[in-house]
Design brief:
Elements: E1 11-17, E2 22-27, E3 32-37, E4 49-53, E5 60-66, E6 71-76, E7 83-88, E8 95-98, E9 105-111, E10 116-121, E11 126-131, E12 138-142
Antiparallel strand pairs: 1-2, 2-3, 3-4, 5-6, 6-7, 7-8, 9-10, 10-11, 11-12
Length: about 150
């Protein structure tokens, strides 16, 4: 087996961009989101590049890509200000999408057709849906704490 990238820190989330043959990952060790093209012989290949670098208090966790809209979304386990964030796939225009009534956002997936985010909160025991900009939040399921750890 071939090792594609070494010394990546504590990888929490991983996503693959099919058209670009590029892996994106979150690292809580470096508080960053990094990308790397798997086949480095491809024209326009990205060598290991941090596209988002956050503060020490931020802990990017899970990651989801919308290749068609050129967007990536991720959960941030900042103890004081947990959130769901988004930016372009190059890390530009980073912004908070959800920052209220959220504690441990540990599941995240995208409905590409409807352009909606689905996310779970393990501490609050719920699954929610919202628009890409965080508007129109709707609780889908509410259960006990620790119930929802991930989404697919």
């Amino acid at each position: 087996r071939q090792v594609i990238v070494e010394n990546v820190g504590s990888v929490e989330g991983l996503a693959y961009h099919r058209a670009w043959d590029t892996l994106y990952w979150t690292s809580s060790t470096t508080s960053s989101i990094t990308r790397h093209t798997v086949d480095q012989t491809r024209p326009g290949a990205f060598d290991r590049e941090a596209v988002i670098t956050m503060s020490e208090d931020d802990h990017p966790h899970v990651l989801a890509l919308d290749e068609c809209q050129n967007l990536m979304f991720w959960t941030n386990w900042n103890e004081q200000h947990p959130s769901i964030m988004r930016s372009t796939l190059t890390g530009k225009n980073a912004q908070v999408v959800v920052s209220t009534d959220i504690l441990t956002p540990n599941g995240l997936t995208i409905d590409y057709r409807a352009e909606k985010l689905y996310f779970s909160d393990g501490s609050l025991g719920k699954i929610e849906r919202c628009e890409y900009d965080g508007s129109q939040r709707h609780v889908i399921v509410k259960s006990g704490p620790g119930t929802f750890l991930s989404l697919a």
